Predict the structure.
Amino acid sequence: MARRVGVGARTPIDEMSKEEKVVLDHLGMQRALNRITHEVLEHNKGTEGLALVGIRTGGVYLAHRLAVKIHEIEKVRVPVGELDITLYRDDLTTKKNPPVLKKTALSFDIHDKSIVLVDDVLFTGRTIRAAMDGLIDFGRPRVIQLAVLIDRGHRELPIRADYVGKNLPTSRDEAVQVFFEEEGEEDRVTIKKHIGEGS
Amino acid sequence: MALKRKDLLGIRDLDTEEINLILDTAESFKEVTTRDIKKVPTLRGKTVVNLFFEPSTRTRTSFELAAKRLSADVINFSVSTSSVVKGESLVDTAKNLEAMQADVIIIRHWAVGAPHLLARTVTSSIINGGDGAHEHPTQALLDLFTLRERKRSLDGLKVAIVGDIDHSRVARSNLYGLKKMGAEVRVVGPATMIPPEIESLGATVYYHLDEALYGVDAIIMLRLQQERQGTPLFPTLREYSRLYCLTPERLHLAKRDVLVMHPGPINRGVEIAPEVADGLSSLILEQVTNGIAVRMAVLFLLAEGKV
């Protein structure tokens, strides 16, 4: 899970601390998403029964972007849902700062669909576990696939992504952050040394 | 963000930030209640006890459903078949429940301050389900939620609360809540039912219903609590009804898009005409639906805060 920066907070790249490094710039992100789009369409042989579900918050932005790209290629609009996994977390009563509950918006029937879960950073895998639990409560998809922008390793559960933007080997004390245009930032992924509680 | 407290005892103690947190959280839970599988695993393994010393349909069932939809285990404590009948004290009853690891206890009691006593005595989270005529915080929260859903903002809203204000915990909690959210509150009823100090809490007093209804955005009707009144507070039921019943004609005095609410149960034809209760302005059943979402939010936030 990546840490989120508030809307309107601008962090010009030259003002970043020396330890913070950009590992994927906005062009890199765009190319990665283009490739993921093509891979999803290839693997699923088109858009038949396809639906995207973004995991709040970063996954939601990415899911919408993928839907736009799919439309550009196949001229079809696939449904996009938004999933908030707070209610399905396994660490709710142990976190010091309880996460804010946001809304889940899944207006279409997921029964028998090919769902592509979308998230920004894949780390321990617990968010994806929670997302699958949440998704199954809505119905029975035919298949669930996972698309992530960054896979930073350190899995604590047997979870893997079908589509990966970039594999980023990290150490546990590093923090990976994804910045989004949708929040007023320049699209990029950064990594920096982090002391304190991880995600 | 969590609530700054282990218990929910009254609206009076909450600040606007906490009220908004509860209402925002309730919105997300309302979505859960529209699903096919109305369950999330959030409070799995937690124990919630409904300790009701007074009758209740809505509040108790609402809390039970709210807890169950959060996957908690629920116990409905029935006073008449409990050892309270053998003389066991309130504190002892609560301590026994605490010893069985009850995480949340919702208490409705005729004595004002009963929830506060429990909050001091046991580590379980205490929710006030109504204490005497004092407060009924979750009712006020669901009323605020219902109004906010329809009107966007409560700031500057004109609300009239009509009926036996003196005996009403719903009136008091709503008065606190509405004032904190910036609304203008009018209390209406016969002089025998309006407590003398109510103006100091920010309400404007009216003794004539027609006068009070001019230009209001929302009307909260209260039930005539015949079971609570010792000395008669009005000559006859018919006279009360003639002066204070919300009829379709009286409804026209308010704003065109006026909203009608009632905590329930309603006395059809006494404080509210059937056509109004079942009419288009009525949010009475919507309040019940929202009650579950709001109570889920309260249970969630109280449980989340306990580290």
Q: What stands out?
A: Chain A has a mean pLDDT of 88. Residues 133 and 198 of chain A are 23 Å apart (CA to CA). The two ends of chain A are 6 Å apart (CA to CA).
